[in-house]
Amino acid sequence: MTTSDSREVVIEATPGEILDVIADVESTPTWSPQYQKAVILESYPDGRPKQVEMTVKAAGLTDKQVIEYTWTDSSVTWTLVSSSQLKAQDAGYTLTPDGEKTRVTFDMAIDLSIPMPGFLLKRTLKGGMETATDGLRKQVLKVKKG
User: Which domain does 74 fall in, by range?
Assistant: First the structure.
């Protein structure tokens, strides 16, 4: 059964600055505690990651996932290529400029391949959504400051 969620945050940065932080997937484990490791398997000609292998730990489970990214000037989405714990995962950020800031919407839909109690799934997803928005905001501001 697919579970999905959406969350929004405003970040004091341009869409380009935000996308640059997201594209630095190998640094994701430094600001997103669920991610243990990220390795770029394939990149697009512009240098942005296309396929990435990530080791993710959530709800006491460790999963090795391969995901594939699609980039535009105002969004990034990814879809699951392979995983031992998930049947499917589709997620992404949509960035809307708002003056000196950017409104960032994060959407995620997952389908677990293993049974998990609903309350645990919701708590785990909530933590991931908070990191994907508030954690991203903190990292973007940190990178901007230098």
Answer: 2-145
Please tell me the total count of domains within the chain. Answer: 1
CATH number of the domain residue 78 falls in: 3.30.530.20
DSSP string, the chain: -EEEEEEEEEESS-HHHHHHHHH-GGGHHHH-TTEEEEEEEEE-TTS-EEEEEEEEEETTEEEEEEEEEEE-SSEEEEEEEE-SSEEEEEEEEEEEEETTEEEEEEEEEEEESS---HHHHHHHHHHHHHIIIIIHHHHHHHHHH-
Cα–Cα distance, 112 to 118 (Å, whole number): 11
Dihedral (Cα; 142, 104, 94, 39), 10-degree rounding: 30
> Whole-prediction pTM value?
0.92
Question: pLDDT of 70-83, one tens digit each?
Answer: 999 999 999 999 99
